[in-house]
Amino acid sequence: MAPAVPLAVLALVALGAPGLGGAPGCDYPAHRWCSSRDVAVACQVESRCPSLPRPAAAPVELSLYYESLCPACREFLVQNLFPTWLLLPEEMLNITLVPYGNAQERNVSGKLDFQCQHGPEECLGNMMEACLMHEAKNFSTYFPVIFCLESGTSVTKNLEACLQVHAPEVDSGRISACVQGDTGVALMHHNAQVTEALHPPHQYVPWITINGKHTDKLQAQAEASLLGLVCQLYQGEKPEICGGSKAPKIPSGCRR
């Protein structure tokens, strides 16, 4: 059964209110004006149809530029970003992970080479996580694995164990082939380009952008309470968890 048209709408029609019923594109009888959002828009009565479902709100877009062995990056990802992702409905938060940070890309005899702030092991960790994302593809598949790697004793030595627990369907051999081949280099080159294109340029990691923007205020809010920030920015219906939360403040980041 179509939703009943509010009495206020019918009263306005009876009075010949301008813009109601005579709107171009409105070829529907009054009793159908609130039957769908498209009809209500066509008949210019959308604001008078409270029973219509609210349009879906866009998710908050968060991008994390980080290094696999940076202590502050690991703490933010493990203690703040991952728990927030678990607590919130999927439609509220969209996360992009870019493992590269303060690394440097060089062309050596026609081949790309990377130097990382925390040494060769960090370069390996960055590439492993980039290859994991490439092979797993689905965020909900690879993010728990990255959480497992970053929260463990060794980012680079626990891949097999983390895959067995969180994503047994992902082939570790394909990830290893990616790391050792051209695909891993191409992925790191892409991350280098994306990181170097940041505006303003990143000065430290973790470097956080919210809806494509970075400010000192947004960074501080994300570090202090990411859950509270996402709840504040999201324009749709908010879950009970948005009643308020605080997260521990993380250490200062890894500066360039």
From TrEMBL:
Assigned GO CC terms: extracellular region; lysosome
Recorded GO MF terms: oxidoreductase activity, acting on a sulfur group of donors, disulfide as acceptor
InterPro entries reported in the protein's UniProt record: Interferon-induced_GILT (IPR004911)
Predominant subcellular localization, coarse grouping: secreted
Enzyme class: oxidoreductase
Keyword hit for Secreted: yes
Keywords annotated in UniProt: Disulfide bond, Glycoprotein, Immunity, Lysosome, Oxidoreductase, Redox-active center, Secreted, Signal
Signal peptide from the UniProt entry: 1-22
Subcellular location: Secreted; Lysosome
Biological processes per GO annotation: immune system process
The protein's Enzyme Commission number: 1.8.-.-
KW Zinc (keyword) present: no
Role of this protein: Lysosomal thiol reductase that can reduce protein disulfide bonds. Facilitates the complete unfolding of proteins destined for lysosomal degradation. Plays an important role in antigen processing. Lysosomal thiol reductase that can reduce protein disulfide bonds. May facilitate the complete unfolding of proteins destined for lysosomal degradation. Plays an important role in antigen processing. Facilitates the generation of MHC class II-restricted epitodes from disulfide bond-containing antigen by the endocytic reduction of disulfide bonds. Also facilitates MHC class I-restricted recognition of exogenous antigens containing disulfide bonds by CD8+ T-cells or crosspresentation.
Family: Belongs to the GILT family.
Quaternary assembly: Dimer; disulfide-linked.
Protein name per Swiss-Prot or TrEMBL: Gamma-interferon-inducible lysosomal thiol reductase
Species assigned in the record: Chloebia gouldiae (Gouldian finch)
